[in-house]
Amino acid sequence: MTDAERGTAFAVSIAGSDPSAGAGLQIDLKTMNACGVWGMTVVAALTAQNANHVRAIAEVDPVFVQSQIKTLQEDFPIACYKTGMLGNAPTVRAVAGALPDGVALVIDPVLIATREYRLTDDSGAKALVEELIPRATVVTPNIPEAETLSGIAITDAASMEDAASWFFDCGASAVVLKGGHAAFRKGVDVFLDRNGVRLLSGNVYPFPDVHGSGCCFASAIASYIALGYPVAEAVERGKEFVDGALRYAVEYAPRRFTMNPGWRDHTTYTKISSRR
Ligand code: PXL
């Protein structure tokens, strides 16, 4: 079946707002759009941030988070949900309570922003482990998140695989443990599902701290799942998409880079033309 024959696929991001549009709901929506699905957004937390700082965070009433999800469900056959910054345990529980059993779920366990701002508190992290990770179709921690959630220090390839297994043992059907922060084998992600471990290698580009890379990857995976690809293939396609978005990263403030989900069109952002 071609993508066109499948009809419109709907995917929902449940995450935090990043007004700079380099991460969070805004990059999720751009990514879903670029991947060919109708992306929708449930605001689970608010941030005030620019290219350099997260200046403030505001919570959203968990009852209202749930109300946004349930209202969408009245009209749309949602093929996949993706979660990002949820902030705290009551919000994690509200989200878990609103998601139907058996639905495809990409859980990006966002805890800390690239620039070291805490985005989900300790009780929220615990609730993720209890309520959402066990239901994940795919969970996509980076190394610091995997270390915090699993308690396993990731120092080499073997401990990275142990940490991936920890998520699988929690009940996630598949794990993508991202290697972008690794001091060893940098840029190589560990993919684990019931068929075992596979390594996903990626190019390493010379941009420091590319903002929104995790959000973009998880949203691309969610998009390809929503389009009907098997999970392992959705992850591979997601990785390919993220590679391009990194390669054509946007310098949206001096020495501050963010993902470019528009890379396939090469029309959206002026600065990329000089790097083609
Ligand atoms: O990249 C993680 C992330 C997720 N969600 C929001 C963010 C960030 C990083 O800054 O601001 C809202």
Question: Could you write a compact summary of the structure shown?
Answer:
One of its GO terms (molecular function) is phosphomethylpyrimidine kinase activity. The chain is α/β, with parallel strands linked by helices and 276 residues long.
Number of domains: 1
What is the CA–CA distance across the termini? 33 Å
What is the typical, i.e. mean, pLDDT? 93
Backbone structural class: alpha/beta
Word description of this protein:
This protein has about 280 residues and is of the alpha/beta class. The chain has a single domain, classed as UDP-N-acetylmuramoyl-L-alanine:D-glutamate ligase. Helix content is about 35%, strand content about 20%. It contains 9 helices and 11 strands. It has helices spanning about 5, 25-35, 60-75, 90-100, 120-130, 145-150, 155-170, 215-225, 230-245; strands at about 10-15, 40-50, 55-60, 80-85, 105, 140, 175, 190-195, 195-200, 250-255, 255-260. The strands form 3 sheets. Strands 3-2-1-4-5-6 form a 6-stranded mixed sheet. β5, α5 (about 120-130) and β6 form a beta-alpha-beta unit. The longest helix is centred in the C-terminal third of the chain and has 17 residues, at about 230-245. It is globular. It starts with a helix and ends in an 18-residue tail after the last strand. 3-hydroxy-5-(hydroxymethyl)-2-methylisonicotinaldehyde binds near residues 15, 16, 47, 84 and 110. 3-hydroxy-5-(hydroxymethyl)-2-methylisonicotinaldehyde binds next to β1, β2 and α8.
